[in-house]
Predict the structure.
Amino acid sequence: MTENHVVTVDGNEAVAYVAYRINEVCAIYPITPSSTMAEWADQWATEGKTNIWDNIPLIVEMQSEGGAAGAVHGALQTGALTTTFTASQGLLLMIPNMYKIAGELTSTVFHVAARSLAAQGLSIFGDHSDVMAVRDTGFALLGSSSVQEAHDMALIAQTATLEARVPFIHFFDGFRTSHEVNKIELLTDDQIRAMINSDLVRAHRARGLNPDNPFIRGTAQNPDIYFQARETVNAFYMKTPAIVQKAMDKFAEITGRSYRLFEYSGADDAEKIMVIMGSAAETVKQTVTHLVRQGEKVGVIHVRLFLPFAQDAFLGALPLTVQSVAVLDRTKSPGATGEPLFHDVVSTFSEYFTSGRLTKLPKTVGGRYGLSSKEFTPAMVKGIFDELGKVSPKNHFTIGIVDDVTHNSLDYDPAYTIESDKVISALFFGLGADGTVGANKNTIKIIGELPNLYAQGYFVYDSKKSGSQTVSHLRFGPDPIHAPYLVQTAQFIGCHQFNFLFKTDILAQAAPGSVFLLNSPFDVDEIWDHLPRYVQEKIIVKHLSFHVIDASKVALATGMGNRVNTILQTCFFALSGVLPREPAIAKIKEAIKKTYSNKGEGIVLKNFAAVDQTLAHLHQVKVPKYVTSTLELPPIVPLDAPLFVQEVTAKMMAGAGDQLTVSQLPLDGTYPSGTTAWEKRNVSDYVPKWEPDLCIQCGNCSFVCPHSVIRAKFYNQSLLKSAPSGFKSAGISAKGFPETRYTLQIYLEDCTGCNLCVSVCPAISLKESGIRAINMKPKAPLMELEKENIQFFETLPFNDRAGVDFSSIRGAQFLQPLFEFSGACAGCGETPYVKLVSQLFGDRLIVANATGCSSIYGGNLPTTPWTKNQEGRGPAWSNSLFEDNAEFGFGFRLTADKHQALAIQLTRELQRELGVDFVNKIVNATQKTESQIRIQRERVAELKTVLLQLNTELAQDLLSVVDHLVRRSIWIIGGDGWAYDIGSGGLDHILASGRDVNVLVLDTEVYSNTGGQMSKSTPLGAVAKFAAGGKSVAKKDIALQAISYGNVYVARIAMGANPQQTLLAIREAEAYPGPSLILAYSHCIAHGINMQNGLKQQDLAAASGYWPLLRYNPVLRQTDKNPFVLDSPRPRIAFKDYAYNELRYKMLQRTNPDGAEHMMKLAQQIVNQKWAIYEQMATRSGSQFHPDANVTD
Amino acid sequence: MDLSTDYMGLKLKHPIVASSSPLSETLEGIKLLEDSGASAIVMFSLFEEQIRKENEAFDFFLEFGSESFAESLNYFPHIDTSPKRPDHYLNLVRKAVEATDIPIIGSLNGITNEGWIDFAKQIQEAGASALELNVYYIPTDIEVSASAVEQRYFDILKAVKDAVSIPVAIKLSPFFSSTGNMAKRLDEAGADALVLFNRFYQPDINLDNLKIDPRADLSTPAEIRVPLLWIAVLYGRIKASLAASRGVHSSTEIIKYLLAGADVVMVASTLMKNGPQYLSVLINETDNWLTARGYHSLNEARGVMSRQNSKDPGAFERVNYIKVLESFENPFSSAIASKRIGNHLR
């Protein structure tokens, strides 16, 4: 045994570490929660790290998981040791190749961070739905239950696959294991080498396709032999379990860590047994140990190798005393008689009992737990064992939820815990931006590095991208920590944001006598009077040791700016008792020195000062004996919210969604629109304030506002009679309307403080330098007044759509946004476009949304931003998948076309009842302008009235499709990852279809939602994940590709460069009766910019010629005009003057200055050449372009 | 005519030195300055603050938005990107030293002790013949006392002198209550040369958009008066070399500075305006003027109009003010037109 190196890592890194060392090729594609495995591999390759054969594996990002599987298959077939990392839908896309890989008896391991599948809703969280969906592919399924095990099993799987020739899926629970940080013993390269048999590696290579020894593999087979040929592999599957056990045994020899295919733990004479795999096995084991100590006869079989299912080994692990068995699956097989593991156990029992090898059939029940990372706790384990003790334990049960419909769920006592006295558990409530999670990860590393201490961390994030709450669950103790569930009782609670006290029950998990640290703007003497009642109560009742610090003040005083993380981390070290205080502080300083030494002595000293000042400003509060506070938690949603919002949405918002029962949730994934309006998130302390006297009413601010926080209305001044005294208005800046007033209302509680509105305001004060018509101001003093104003503003009528000038930014501000208050990042570059589409066409809009940022801020519960107008009309929105969005939206078009035709047909059939004139009018209606659409709506309403009266079969049929007589606007929205990569084929196909669909590509030039991986839209020279050395291929020009069809409307837009062109292009695209493609520059957090400069960067992108604004309108071609219009002036700045404002380009200057210079030169050349092509196209005559068959008038 | 001069121990063939300007930002520019006849080159200033700010911004954006959302725990590959060092500057110094035969003087503007010391050492290691400390600092904090501001200069000088062995010049602002005393004390503290004076960032108000425009115009000949006064006053009374800076547009100003007692005269604006080749004109004209008046060497002419050599030292004091008023001429007769060219103070 060689010496063991101890590290603190998460599951993904632990797995990738091994996979990287034992492979030559890795084809990857980002998908949560597996992405970081691929990112590590890519990063290590960039850094020149080698595998155990001293060469650098090839890491290749593909266009989809389907592509990755194909590339893996190809590399395997030609003899390279090859792997991939994936999860969920990604794994499903690999299925076709997986059958092939297995059928061809190919050695490989796919590492899967197991995740839910999208059914009634998408979920990024963990369960076994994905791996269970591939169990017929022929891959062996080997599961890990902890970070250490995932590290070890990655190697065991590889060892086994080389010998068995059966391919393996090595899976571990998404998030719970993939993202848990724990202390593990790292395998050394020598240990890894000792496990990998070189002869088998060479045999794998020898099986590869080779023209020097040619053969054919992948034939087409006929009924005569396919069946028999399919059976040839049986022997390999029969041998596999023994091979895996052999690998485990060898591994034990080398490392001292031993594993079994089925590992029993519990009482020798156990009567009640649970069978389970994945991280939950650890929870059951810990609970069993606890129960056995109390004399209970219970045990657990931890399944590691699920497939091939080794029946002998399974029964060998089963105590003979067993009477009842519960088999737990973390997946759901609707309609089946049970889930997969249950089936295998039951059939094993049945088979062995029938053949006499088992004398007695235990009572066996199956159950489901933990779907989508639903917590699975010792209390639930106890509940299941209790159920097993019953005469007729419930079968096909669920645990962890309340099923009040089919009553499958088991009851259990949630208060039951088994937390050890030796473990110190801590909970931290922080904001995404405040560095709490980062500091906690650092804390775990510091403590985990100490020889006799162990540490575990798990982090729970928000579903919103801005102003998000994070909760860190940390455990520390003298023994390895096997507790893959959230902290249930904490000895330390850190609340890093004072206002959280009024949002969540921060002290729910506080153990009696625990330490409560509060970051508070109020000092030790005054804090008590500012606490809500429940906090005071819990502090007193639980005898908490209560400490406060004003971390922001300490940070400012010590030059740390707004970074409070080191300060709060120091408080934890000082108060938690994990280490004695003095050495704890010394450890913190040591860590600071390590982290910052390369940034200069000054930074180190500044942090040291922060640590010292922290201790000087950390005070224990003398807790009074009595509760004095009258401050109560405000209701989650206002009492006038709809019932569903009050009963369901509000629970989710409050973090109590776990308590919702089955009957409370929609059956089929259908949720009401417009729920963000009920969630006042109060993310920003600074909000815009309007200056009516300065304002020129241009509409720029509301146009660019990513969160639809700035609304404008004009109205008759008589309406102001009932206005609150602080309500602001101005005379409308248009001649001839002396009685019309204008108001710009800020929805300040929904503002994220991004500052984009201020940056685009053209009106400046002549009295005060730097003051514009809209300025950021502290929110608190404005709150009461503005809330009253909003209330009044909402009583003002929305401006008549038919009376608003759709063609100008000034006019567009009066159109109600039907996309509001999303959870997008502050300053998001995408949402202003989405909002604009909702304003222009929202009341007849259907959106197909590709998975990605826009589907998350657009459709992630609890609250969603797509909403409806006062008539009850609004965008109907859906997300199918990532890869199929173009086709999905195309399907909307097919229905619309079909049902519109049907409605026309049925209307005509009812000509006698409806009258010729009316029928002609309604079926031939022109619906180009808003007023024409309005008239058509009136006709349809009239028609409906008649149809209801008619009440014939025909009338009923027409009623079911009659809404289609108003033209629908079908939009297909997604990011560049979808449009350029995974959905590229589908997008291309629907653009070639000639049908009237509108495609909006929110182009951030990377996979933003999964954390900035390269797409084919990523520009040359930019650094992204999977392009850590700078992307070496230029961005794909899909505008030119689409233009080449001739009948596709194409526009490239950038709101920050030319908002008027943006508006024009979106309207032209919608009006064009064929396919339209809009490429919208969307600045993004992943560009590494100050988001408040996002629009400026858009302008520079266009000014440099990198992002030339253009429109290709096939309609113009009909009159022999040039359909290609270049809307940008000639480049007036160098590409670098745009690019080097962004970290994605600057990074390369740091890591490879010569390379950066070279790439920048190339990038400039590309810009020049592209511009020349565009300019040439813009000067052609119309006849040099394709004619368009779509346009007939 | 022997124009040679000694500037803080550097033997220069004549007193006209190319001072900090965008011309010294490239190797080509530096070579051109030498070819045009510069006797030494002061490099453009290395600003510690800029490097620090860039590093801070880099770290900030690298982490921005991270650990907030479960699907995107960060947005950039975690490649080891060590902080930006003044590599570009140091490389340029190194290349300039290799490519030229004249002294290359580094110029440094620091904000922390650490920065002054580290960067000074690195500039020395890169081969610079001397170092000019550009203490570019505006005490806008009205709580900071004059003595505290002065102490800052001494601290910096001491820190750098202790760190390097090459000669160290310090560039001063004229805004001290007792400029002469300040010069004397810096001299005693070991400054090898005093460069008189720095031109400060002088913000302007933009009337179009009511914003503050950061702006530095090229100098005008009228600006020589203040340095001229203090060089004349200090000549012969301190050990440190004296460099005149500001307002040189023709040989006239150079000659005046030399007569007042300058060891070298720094030239930038006029080279920006007329090109580096204008150096040869300046040298020739200076030579011709001195020759025509019968001087055999620069040493004979230096300081002849200094306060020390003046028959009437009082002329440099209050009486001077009265004289100026009496001899005031219509400024338009000299037709001095200043033209904005751009930011040459780096």
